[in-house]
Structure formats: C-alpha cells, structure tokens
Amino acid sequence: MFGRINSFATSGRLAGCVIWSSLFLCAQAPPKPPDANVQEMVSRDAPPTFRAKVNLVLVPVVVRDRDGHAVGNLKKEDFQLFDKGKPQTISRFSVESGKGSEIKLRPDGAAVVATPAAPGEPEETKPGEAPPKRLVAYLFDDMHLSFGDLAQSRQAAERHIDTLESTDRAAIFSTSGKTMLDFTADREKLHAALLRLQPQSRTGGANECPSVSYYQADLIVNKNDPQALQAATLEVEVCNPQVMGNGPGNSQSNNANQQQAMSAAQRALTLGNADVQVALGVVRDVVRRISTMPGQRSLILVSPGFLIVPDFRTEEVDIVDRAIRSNVVIGAVDARGLYVGDGIVPDVSKPVYNGQAALFKAQYDRDSALAQADVLAELSDSTGGTFFHNSNDLDAGFRRVATAPEFYYVLGFSPQNLKLDGSIHTLKVTVKDLKGLTLQARRGYYAPKHLADPGEQAKQEIEEAVFSRDELRDIPIELHTQFFKASDTDVKLSVLARVDLRHLHFRKEDGRNRNSLRVVSALFDTNGNYVTGMEKIVEMRLLDQTVQNRLGLITVKTSLDIKPGSYVVRLVVRDTEEQLMAARTAAIEIPY
Q1: What is the CATH number of the domain that holds 143?
Q2: How far apart are CA 9 and CA 201, in angstroms?
Q3: Does the global pTM surpass 0.85?
Q4: pLDDT tens-place string over residues 141-184
Q5: Residue 561 structural domain
Q6: 549: Cβ–Cβ under 8 A, 6 or more apart, which residues?
Q7: Does 417 share its domain with 340?
Q8: Is beta strand 438-441 parallel, antiparallel or unpaired with respect to 57-64?
Q9: Residue 180, Cβ neighbours under 10 Å: how many?
Q10: What is the CATH number of the domain that holds 17?
Q11: Do 197 and 339 reside in the same domain of the chain?
Q12: How far apart are CA 380 and CA 386, in angstroms?
C-alpha cells in the first residue's frame, strides 16, 4: 500500500513523500507506517455532511482621513462593533484591497501558462499574461427609471465608458433583462447597448385614479395604515369630480371610493412586489457574474431607488453577503438628480392637487422618494461602495461610484442567542481613536426566520468560492498544474493541491483524530464561463502516532479531460471541523 518516491515533476520539494492511496503524504520527518490493516486516510467522490458556521455576519468598513483617502493600517483591536447597542466579539478580520486580487500561482505573483516539456515528461506552468485589471458592470434600473432620468444617465454613462482604460472590461445590464451585454472591451458594442435602453415601467402613473405608489400601497395593505387609505380615498374623490354625489357627506359614495382606493393599492402592491423581486434577482445575478472574473470589481447601479418591503429583505441581505464575500463593490447613482427641500423635484407629469389631497400626496411622494434612496444607500454602504445623490452632475457621479476605495476592512461576528424572527438588527462600528477619520459601514442586517440547512450552506460557500477569483488563506495550500497531450485535440490536465495539515484541528472519536477535506478543482475559459470540474473528499481518521509525528503535507491530484486553449484553474479547499477555506487561481495556456 505504501511506497517511496524520490522526485516529483512539478516540484522537487516534494522529495521524500509517501504515496498514500491516491494522495501524496509528506512530512518533515517521515512518520512510522500505521498498521497495514488500518486505513487512516481515504478519498471519495460523495460529499460529506458539513457542520457549517451559521449566523456569521460580515461588516465591510471604509475608513477615510480628512482628505478622503482610505486608511489601510488599522488593526482588529482598533475597532469596536455593536449589534443593537451590544458590543460584539470580532471573530473575523481582514484588510481588503479595492484594486482586486491578481491571478497568481507563484510567490512572485506571476500568472502561469502551461508549456511543453521534454518528451515523456509532464508539462508544467510558467509565467504568462495577466487578466483584465478592472471590471465595471453598469446596471440600469429601467423598470423604475423615467424616460428623462434614463436619457440623462445614459449620456453620462457613455462619457464614462470613453474614460475606461484599455485593460478594463465593461458590461451593460438592465433590471428588466431586455438589454444585456456581457463584459467586453469593445466600446462600440457598449455604446450600442446603451442606446437600446428604454423605460420598462408597468405602472399607469398619472393615468391611474388614484395613483398609489408602491410605498403607499405597502402602508395600506401590509401595515393597515388608516391615513394612507384615507389619502388614497380622498384622491379618488378629487380625480373623479364627475361622479354624482361624490363628497364627504355621501356615505355610499365614500364606501365606493374607499373600495376603489383599496383595489388600486392592492394592484400597486402586486406589481411593485413583482418588479422588486425581478430587480433584486438581476442585481444578485450581476453580482454573481462579476464575481467569477479577476481584478477590481465594481457594480454601478443606476436607479431612482426602489422600495424593499420586509418580505424581500432576506434577498437584499443575501445580495449584500454575496457581494462582500466576492469583493464586489456596489456603488449607486441616484438618477433623479438634485433634491429640493426635504424631497425630490416634483413630477410635472402628475396631476396637481389642492387642499388636504395635495398635503397627503406631497407627504407620501416625499416619504417614498426617501425610502427608495435609502435602499441605494444601504447597498452601497454595506459593500464599501459610494452612493451618489442630490446632484445633477452625473458625470462626477459615475467617476466617484466607479472608483473603489483603496482599502477597506471586513469585520465578522456571530451574534449570540440570535432570535429567528426576521427582525432588523442595527449595527454600529467605531474606531477607538477617531480623530480626523470618518467611517462608512454596513448599517444593519435582518435576522433569519429559520436556520439554513448546514449541508446546503456549506455547498453554497464552496460554490461561491469556486466562482470567485479571490484568494482565501485559512489553510496553507499550493496549486500546481501539469498536462499530457494524448493527441492534437485531447489533453489530460492534472490539478495538484498541496495542503498543509499542520494547521488543521482534529476531532477525537473512537481513538482516532478525525477531519475531512473537500477539494474542488474547476476550469473556466478566459471569459469566466465554467468548462468542467471535479471534487474529491479526503476523510482523515488518523492515529495519535501519525499526528504526533507532525504529519505535514498531502497532495491531492485531480485529472480533467480538456481541449487545447487558454483557461483559468480554480482550486478551493474546505475542512469540516472548523470550516476553514483556502482558494487559489492559476491561468494556463495549452498550445494547439
């Protein structure tokens, strides 16, 4: 079962290793072989049941000095984090670069390209061409943008695209899904996609009687707000003056008007729910798409804002968490431009009301506008981005929003005794010595209404890491590749994961030290599209003698059948006991 090897084609440092089943096991001092009848380590393809960490809340924080520059030299002990006013223990801490992570395999940070070796020898990787440095996704909320706001923001986006560097890639998306252009460096295609954008609102606006906003409809139907219903009923009386007997003294007419107001509210709520659900789904999909690519990742959301009722807050939290884990910075441009007083510039396309109806209408329009803007601010603050609002200078807005902070921090904590009630938890972050510094941080989160299935949550974490390009360093690992060309069109690619077991913790059970590793190797084309992949489960049931002898490195080998071409290899490793994760990325080129 066991044997010695003196060399390995990919790395001479693997000399003095023990072949253990399909794994290569290395140590500083070779351990004594265990009993031949005892299997300490086996690999299989079926995934194990993970005990996923639950309720880990991630909080991005941007700290700026007096000149507005991001500060990147703070430490974990400099921060204090409060959940509903109660101090929390910061269990995760990292300093991230807004410039994005570079693809790299070797310590010098070089990308890698596979090149042929001598006949009969495996062909290994060498430095090669780097990927795009910056990715900008423009997401236009055409389901809520008016014609005028869309036209102005589209022109500003056209000018901003012309300022992108040759190494940048940009994409155009819309919440309606009717205008989509994946990442490209072709400026003509980008400008053509912008010209195809048109408003896709499904509401009747000024032609409806009464014209009930999604915000007001939520108050009427979901919150049973009598004043909101009274305002809509009064609007029915004002916009239907021709109805005989319409007035405050006619109870029959008032009942009919109230029924019409309630019907309009229910219709507005149904349409609003559908639109917001679609919009949030597109935002989530764009975050997922941009996270599969290397470099600095910026999502620019161009919108007048949209309301998120409590039923959809879980989806918003999921988007924020996904963006944080993938280092996607969401910035928002409020396309409505300059605010006037406490609200937004009045819409001249809507009817003008007098008296009490006018007061009600102004109040709900103002409250709705502020609630919509608050959602854009939440998405930006929660991911380290910038929210540009209350200004008609949209050119400046696109410049500011597209520029990610040079540094930002990610704090993580696990709330204690968290009630599964869906309630909002306000967050506050402070720095002990805040002199001359300003903070931007996630404002809060919503408690889940039920715990996620641990196995499904673990799979989701691994999937997100696979489709990301960021390096994770909880476990020391190395990634190596080699390939054999069976013919001009058939290639066998070997992905080698070297994992240092000395940093893992083991659970004692039945006299064994137990842990499991899930090793996932995935292959993508240069556009970020998934090509193929394989996962291996390494189950460790180690004897005390094996652990005491300082068990060191194992190498897990995965073979993939591919065709010649340029690819990106993604390796993700996750352990069971502490849910530690590591991830590496390498670019390879297999010549034809």
Answers
A1: 3.40.50.410
A2: 61
A3: no
A4: 999 999 999 999 999 999 999 999 988 999 999 999 999 999 99
A5: 4-51+453-590
A6: 27, 29, 30, 31, 32
A7: no
A8: antiparallel
A9: 14
A10: 2.60.40.150
A11: yes
A12: 5
